[in-house]
């Protein structure tokens, strides 16, 4: 199985930390986020990995991975970047990973083993993490409702906690048939909407068209980096084993190499 990592963005909220490199190269405990994702994918048995690049693409050359480039990264969103990897996505199942998240390999293995056409990982224990990251958990969370294993709502601004049964983790698996549905839905949008639509908004459009999106539940063992404060928090949580031991092991491997 293949995987693509969305690594096109700068992440302006990281301020000077991304002045000369894409956001995915920000280090958490001495190891770049993209390196952590590649390591987790390898532990899940996925070594055929490509990057979707944009900002400061040359900074990623040292990884020696195939890449798809979005030259319009500064004026487009993740979905438009993902479209540049259609050569892979239309041919076989592919796991898509955001470049600013880290995750344990067992979550990736759940996605890998899913037989659904479109599988989306979601965190059941999201509130534990969000309550540490934000004074108001609703300020950054998105709606997520599921019926059995079928996602019925995703990506809207929540009014209350009852609208949130989990949080999207920036990890999903697509197959050629589901990629056909995604690109078909995308092609019907105006050009301006194509440039700014988010992944979860595109998922909701599919749901509105009665396409099935299967939710893959997980607990903890992941995080997303949106700001320097996130990095400081995660380093403290790693020291206190909030995520378990797998992040410390990865850090030791990096330091000893």
| Total number of strands | 13
The CATH topology is given as Spore Coat Polysaccharide Biosynthesis Protein SpsA, Chain A
CATH-defined superfamily: Spore Coat Polysaccharide Biosynthesis Protein SpsA, Chain A
| Fraction in helix | 25-40%
Strand content: 15-25%
Q: How many separate domains? A: 1
Determine the N-to-C terminus distance. 27 Å
Quick overview:
Helices cover 35% and strands 23% of the residues.
Describe the structure.
With 257 residues, the chain is of the alpha/beta class. Helix content is 35%, strand content 23%. The protein is built from 10 helices and 13 strands. β9 and β10 form a beta hairpin.
Blueprint (SSEs and pairs):
Layout: E1 2-7, E2 27-28, E3 31-32, H1 33-43, E4 48-53, E5 67-69, H2 78-83, H3 86-89, E6 94-98, E7 101-103, H4 105-113, E8 118-123, H5 126-133, E9 144-147, E10 150-154, E11 167-174, H6 176-187, H7 191-196, H8 199-208, E12 214-218, E13 222-224, H9 228-239, H10 246-256
Parallel strand pairs: 1-4, 1-6, 4-5, 8-12
Antiparallel strand pairs: 2-3, 6-11, 7-13, 8-11, 9-10
Helix pairs in contact: 1-4, 6-8
């Amino acid at each position: 199985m293949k995987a693509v990592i969305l690594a096109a963005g700068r992440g302006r909220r990281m301020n000077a930390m991304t002045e000369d490199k894409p956001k995915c190269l920000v280090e958490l405990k001495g190891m770049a986020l993209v390196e952590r994702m590649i390591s987790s994918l390898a532990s899940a048995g996925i070594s055929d990995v490509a990057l979707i690049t944009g900002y400061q693409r040359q900074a990623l050359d040292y990884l020696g991975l195939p890449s798809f480039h979005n030259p319009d990264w500064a004026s487009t969103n993740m979905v438009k970047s993902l479209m540049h990897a259609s050569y892979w996505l239309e041919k076989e199942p592919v796991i898509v990973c955001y470049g600013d998240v880290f995750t344990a390999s067992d979550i990736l293995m759940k996605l890998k083993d899913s037989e659904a056409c479109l599988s989306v990982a979601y965190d059941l224990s999201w509130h534990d993490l969000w309550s540490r990251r934000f004074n108001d958990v609703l300020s950054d969370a998105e709606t997520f409702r599921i019926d059995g294993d079928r996602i019925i709502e995703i990506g809207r601004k929540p009014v209350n906690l009852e609208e949130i049964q989990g949080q999207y983790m920036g990890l999903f698996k697509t197959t050629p048939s589901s990629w056909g549905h995604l690109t078909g839905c995308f092609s019907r949008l105006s050009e301006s909407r194509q440039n700014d639509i988010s992944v979860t908004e595109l998922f909701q459009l599919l749901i509105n068209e009665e396409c099935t999106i299967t939710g893959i539940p997980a607990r903890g063992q992941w995080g997303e980096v949106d700001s320097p404060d996130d990095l400081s928090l995660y380093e403290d949580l790693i020291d206190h084993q909030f995520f378990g031991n797998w992040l410390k092991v990865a850090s030791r491997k990096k330091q000893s190499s």
